[in-house]
Each structure stands twice: as structure tokens, then as C-alpha cells.
Amino acid sequence: MKKRLPLNLSLGRYRWIAVIAPLGFFLMDAQQVMAQQSMPHPPKMIPDKTFSVTAGTTFTYDSNVFRLSHLVNPAAFTGQPRRADQIIITSATLGFNKRYSMQRFEVTGTLVDNRYMNFDFLDFLGKNYNAAWHWYATPYLHGRLTSRHSEALNNFANLSGFLNSTNRNLRTFDNYHFDGILELNRAWHLIGGLDHSVMKNSRLTIQDFNNKVSSVEGGIRYVSSSGGSLTYKVRSGRGEFINRPAPLPDVLFDTRFDEMEHELRMHWPITVKTSIEGRIGYLDRQHAHFPQRDFAGFVGDLNINWLPTSKLQLTGGWSRQLSNYQTAAFAFQNPVYERFSSSYIAINRFSIAPVWQITEKTALRVRYDYIISDFHGAVVPLPTGNRSDQMHSGLVALDWRPLNVLYLSAAFHRDHRTSNHRGFDFDSTAGSVSATLNF
Question: How far apart are the C-alpha atoms of 81 and 73, rounded to whole Å?
Fold first, then answer.
């Protein structure tokens, strides 16, 4: 029999090593939000500036790096009695922005060095880039060709309770996208595109959950004279678990899947100071061999932007997404964690984010998110029922730009998650200071 990577559970002839297949980007926790909100910013593309350089550093204190419950003894998972760490993130970015006749090219490349003081086995050097060609065949036929590569640690909040949930596991994401717009007239546009994405994990223990998805999309857009737009688009995709040559019936892990998504998107300026952006869609994922893992449902988001004064901006929003989240029986490494079974996760997020421009050089940012995560599609009957989590997440940040080339920021972030299943709750507090030089 052909030998394959160790993957299975405690039942049968395999041992349980890999336990989860997260195929999407799930809810953000403090680790990701702090990194995005306070780490050095990439250079802003200025039309008259061909080259740009950014260098910066961020110091972060994180009280609960692995998002462990208070019921868990951290020494049993990490070999250390502590949960907290100090993290230094240093980055350097090169940017290129150039227009040639009707064509425009944008490229940014970033090196991000992550250093942990206590859990130094998490250290890594991330290599990221974005490239875009804004192409024009004629003024009425145009689009974009883009490529993106990113490297980051897997979100520890999504791996709570599973084997290898406290290991260094880098997730690499590559995306290649082509889209085109044909303007039939000023109001009506035809749109179409191709998309290919590849997601990989660095640890062999979850290597089988690497995947790639290829999609084709098309639709029609209406653009109003006031600048608003209404777009209908349909996307058809084929996904594949690239390290799984054959389905695994013992655990209902498939080799491929098909996706179909219908979407209606709107951007509309209501007044000079108020605009609304929204999307509603229906996503249907079908697996090739195990329909028990199929899921379908409504997805979407709604954001309202309001400028009550020249110095105050307020954004409020809601979003709903469905993502693959496959588990199997006896997948937990510690009896503290209450077992559950799922095939996908539904996440509802409610947020409010005011920004106060105190002076021309100083701004105060605040954000609050309330997130509900429901785990559905159980393939193993358990008396504990479906898992459901609720999380409160808050961020306060003060930004100061004393010089055009210098950007300083200080941020504080707090997360509190509760769950109807034992062991999946956690509290975390993070604070950071950062400095960035832009040339």
C-alpha cells in the first residue's frame, strides 16, 4: 500500500497528528490586528514618486501569545510557565510606481523580521510582495493583473485545543488575479476575471491541508452619474488539497471541492459626508467524495462611512463569512478541551471604528468588534453539541506624524473570548509602540 504522511486519529491504523483544515482567513485576533494597525506601514504610492523606501520597527507586549484558556497550564503546551512575550518586528519595504503611456505598474516588496524574547522558536523572516499592472487596451477596455505573496504565523486563536496548536507554523499565501472591464457606455460595464490562489503551511503535520483554488468570474456593473455603482458577479471555482492524492474515508477528508458564489455588490454616496458599501452573496461548496462536508449559505457585509465633522470619521459595519473548518474525532491533546465536530465555521462580525483627527499631525483611532463564531457540519455525534464562541475585541491607537518622513504610533488591544465548550475561552492584552521612516 502506498505510504502517505501520518495524519490520522487514534482510531484505526493511523495515529492522530493533523487535526484541522482551515482554508480561509478566519476572525482576526490581537496578534493580527496589532500587526496590521501598528507595524510599520508600507510606502504610499504617490503618482509623481517612482521609488519609495520604508523602514520601521514595532515593539509589542502580548500577554497571551498562544491564546490559551485560564484552565490550561501553559507549561504542558510550551514547556514554559509563562503566557506572555515581548515581540520586536523590524521591516523594510521598497516600492515602485511608474506610468508608461496608458499603462501603470506598481510593485512593493517587504522583509519583515519577527523576534520573540521568550518563545524564540517562533522567530521568522517574512517575505511579502505585491505587484500590479493596471492595463489599458483602449479607454473603454481596461483592467488589472496582480500578484501577491505573504508569509505569516497561523492564527493561534483558530488552533486552540488541537495538536500542534503552539508550534511555529508559517502560512504562505500566493494569489494571481486578472480582471477586465468593458465599458459599453458610461453607465453599463461588463466585467470578468480569472483567479488562482495557493495556501501552504510550513509544518508537515498539517501538510495535507495545503490547498489551491482556481476560479473564473463574470458579471455586469451599473455606474451612476453621482459615482455610485451596483455590480452583479458570479464566480465558479475548483479547489484541490494538493498534498492528498486520495480521499481518506476514515476521517472524511476529501481531495477536491467545487465552489459557486453569486454576489451583488453596492457602493453608493448618500450625501457628501455619508456613503454606504455593501455586498450580499450566496456561497455553495460541494466536495467530490464526502457530501457530509458540504456547506452553503448567505455571506456578505455592510459598511456605513460618516463624516459628521471635518476632523471626525465614523465607520460602522457588519459582515458574515463561511469558511472550511474540518475536524475529526479525538482531535484534542488535552482533556481540558471539550471535544466538538465540525466541517465549516460561520462568522458574524459587528464593528464600529471612529477616527478623530486631533490636529493635522495627530490622530486617535478606536475600534470595537463583536464576533460570533458558530461551528457547523458535525460528522461525529457528540453529547456536547455544536461549538459557539463569542469575542469582544477593542483597539485604541494614537498616531503622530511630526515630520513628513516620520510616523509614530502607540496602540493598545484587548480580546475576550467565551465559548459554550470548555477550554476555548481566553483573555489577551497587547500593547505596542512603533516608528516608521518613509522616503
Answer: 7
Helix (H, G, I), strand (E, B) or coil at 250: coil
Q: For 31-50, what is the mean pLDDT?
A: 53
Kindly state the average pLDDT of the residues 127-137. Answer: 97
Environment class of residue 402 by beta-carbon count within 10 Å: exposed (0-12), middle (13-18) or buried (19+)? exposed
Assess contact for 366 and 395: CB atoms under 8 A. Answer: yes
Tell how far CA 410 is from the center of its chain: 23
pLDDT averaged over every residue in the chain? 88
Q: Grid coordinates representing 83? A: 503566557
DSSP, residue by residue, 326-340:
E--TT-BSSTTSPP-
Residue 28 grid cell: 482576526
pTM score, whole prediction: 0.88
> Which three cell numbers, joined as nine digits, stand for 304?
456605513
Q: Which three cell numbers stand for residue 119?
A: 518563545
CB 152 within 8 A of CB 127: no
Radius of gyration of the chain (CA): 23
CA distances from 194 to 72, 148, 279 (A): 45, 14, 20
Q: Give 226-261 pLDDT, tens digit per residue.
A: 889 999 999 999 999 988 889 999 989 999 999 999
The partner residues of 272 in beta bridges, in order of sequence, read: none
Quick one: residue 37, left, alpha or beta (phi over 0 = left, psi -120 to 50 = alpha)?
A: alpha
For residue 20, give the nearest of 118, 226, 165 by alpha carbon. 165
Structure confidence by residue, pLDDT tens digits, 50-96: 999 999 999 999 999 999 999 998 988 888 899 999 999 999 999 99
Closest CA to 178 of 216, 139, 213: 216
Distance CA 356, CA 374 (A): 34
Domain boundaries, the chain: 21-438
Task: Provide the CATH number for the domain formed by 21-438 in this structure.
Answer: 2.40.160.10
What is the CB-side half-sphere exposure of residue 59 using CA atoms within 13 A? 5
**Weakest mean pLDDT among 25-34, 197-206, 260-269:** 25-34
Q: How confident is the model at residue 331 (pLDDT cuts 50, 70, 90)?
A: low
Separation between Cα atoms, residue 133 and residue 142, nearest integer Å? 10
pLDDT value at residue 31: 54
How far apart are the C-alpha atoms of 200 and 23, rounded to whole Å? 10
DSSP line for 220-232: EEEE-TTS-EEEE
